[in-house]
């Protein structure tokens, strides 16, 4: 079998969730949208069932997958519903909804539902993607409250620049939000991973950590705290061929890399069809036989090439970590001009192998 694997360490996932809880005195929804950022939503949710206060996913389909696997905790749909005909299933599966537009309130009011639905009313406090503007928010809240199909209401907003500890943007958004809901006495939710770690002064009833659960640093710069995160995914493969080449030979598509001296080039069974970023530059690090080595040449669909000139001990069969415990996904993302979120959610074709599945939270 092709030796390309994503090892998923569920004990690391639990550790990271506990870390998020340490920073949020109240409850934390574990965000497992997009198949738990590529890690497998069912396995990740099951690994967190004994400690997570709830889960968040993007849509109904993702939530049903979790319910079908026996997940009992609250599940929030971060984009709410897209059409009124989803509401009956939302009731049947006991899901919570983000409400971000007037038409959703109208649909909720008009639909005959068997049970009230808990709703998270989203404010646009500055990100300008979805949600009610400040001047609309209290009115929307009152309409929701009057709707018989609505159970509990939480007020939420999303921060655009919580990753930048130098910027006042997060506190400004937070101030807008707090001002608008002051009179309502409603539970609140503000913080994503970056805010959980960098803005502990932002206190709300529910946090929504995502990327930090998977061990990636959500901040622009690492801090003492982000260094306590444990990487969950380790993307691994093996060297399947080795070339000895003289100086001046070009490697791979477009001849991007040319040997500067007599070189040994290894071929790794991993490519962009597995989710490894095609835009990774020459020199992007990976771990071969326990030592760092650099990408040499463009990434292909099924293979990539690595400079083994300084690693004579490496050869066909040598283990390669593309990212994981030794090479951080954030470092590779930086070398590929992308972000860990995009790389992790792109993982496909590789075998997923779950570690520490039966270890309960410490
Ligand atoms: C995805 C998402 C999160 C989690 O964000 P991270 O940066 O991964 O922590 C939180 N809140 C909302 C509304 C989201 O869409």
UniProtKB/TrEMBL annotation:
Domain Alanine racemase C-terminal: where? 232-355
Q: Where is substrate bound in this sequence?
A: 129, 301
Coiled-coil segments on the chain, per record:
none
| EC number from the UniProt entry | 5.1.1.1
KW Zinc (keyword) present? no
Keyword annotations for this protein, in alphabetical order, are: Isomerase, Pyridoxal phosphate
Q: In which pathway does it act?
A: Amino-acid biosynthesis; D-alanine biosynthesis; D-alanine from L-alanine: step 1/1
Q: Which cofactor does it need?
A: pyridoxal 5'-phosphate
**SMART domains listed in its UniProt record:** Ala_racemase_C
- Tell me the domain of life: Bacteria
Q: Which residues carry this modification: N6-(pyridoxal phosphate)lysine?
A: 33
Q: Which reaction does it catalyse?
A: L-alanine = D-alanine
Supply the Pfam families for this chain. Ala_racemase_C, Ala_racemase_N
Name the job this protein performs: Catalyzes the interconversion of L-alanine and D-alanine. May also act on other amino acids.
User: What protein name is recorded for this chain?
Assistant: Alanine racemase
Q: Can you name the source organism? A: Thiopseudomonas acetoxidans
Q: Which gene encodes it?
A: alr
């Amino acid at each position: 079998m092709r030796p390309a694997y994503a090892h998923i360490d569920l004990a690391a996932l639990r550790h990271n969730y506990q870390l998020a809880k340490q920073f949020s005195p109240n409850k934390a929804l574990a965000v497992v949208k997009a198949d738990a950022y590529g890690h497998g939503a069912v396995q990740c949710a099951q690994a967190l069932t004994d400690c997570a206060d709830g889960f968040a996913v993007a849509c109904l389909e993702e939530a049903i997958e979790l319910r079908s696997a026996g997940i009992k905790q609250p599940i929030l749909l971060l984009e709410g519903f897209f059409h009124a005909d989803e509401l009956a299933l939302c009731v049947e599966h006991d899901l919570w909804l983000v409400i971000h537009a007037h038409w959703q309130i109208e649909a909720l009011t008009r639909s005959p539902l068997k049970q009230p639905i808990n709703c998270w009313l989203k404010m646009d406090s500055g990100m300008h993607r979805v949600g009610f503007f400040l001047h609309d928010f209290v009115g929307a809240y009152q309409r929701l409250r009057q709707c018989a199909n609505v159970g509990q209401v939480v007020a939420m907003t999303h921060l655009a620049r919580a990753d930048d500890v130098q910027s006042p943007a997060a506190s400004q958004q937070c101030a807008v939000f707090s001002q608008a809901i002051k009179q309502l006495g409603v539970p609140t939710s503000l913080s994503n991973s970056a805010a959980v770690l960098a803005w502990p002064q932002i206190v709300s009833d529910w946090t929504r950590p995502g990327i930090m659960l998977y061990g990636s640093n959500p901040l622009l710069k690492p801090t003492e705290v982000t260094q306590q995160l444990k990487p969950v995914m380790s993307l691994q493969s093996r060297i399947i061929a080795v070339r000895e080449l003289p100086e001046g030979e070009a490697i791979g598509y477009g001849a991007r890399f040319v040997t500067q001296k007599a070189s040994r080039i290894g071929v790794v069974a991993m490519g962009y069809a597995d989710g490894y970023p095609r835009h990774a530059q020459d020199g992007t690090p990976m771990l071969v036989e326990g030592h760092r080595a650099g990408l040499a040449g463009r990434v292909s669909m099924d293979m990539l090439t690595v400079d083994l000139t300084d690693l004579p001990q490496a050869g066909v069969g040598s283990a390669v970590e593309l990212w994981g415990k030794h090479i951080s996904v954030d470092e590779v993302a930086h070398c590929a001009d992308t972000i860990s979120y995009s790389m992790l959610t792109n993982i496909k074709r590789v075998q997923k192998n779950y570690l520490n599945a039966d270890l309960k939270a410490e």
